[in-house]
Description:
By secondary structure, this protein is mainly alpha-helical. It has helices at 22-41, 43-48, 53-76.
Amino acid sequence: MGFLDVDGTRRPAPEPARVDVRVPVAVGTLLWMLAATVAGFAYGPLDADGLGWWLTAAIVGVVLGFVGLAVLLLRSER
């Protein structure tokens, strides 16, 4: 069918869905925390294999997750 009706006119765009994105951002941040914890306990073997950056990447994921949550919370207060 497409975006055009039978007579060739364009249908109006649907309203955007209202979604609370705080939950998936919080879950993602918790998963990065778990990854950082595991990488922290296994840092010796990871570093020996040249994978010490995994801990850094997980910590950056946690920090960015908190930044994202802060932005979402500040934005929802407006």
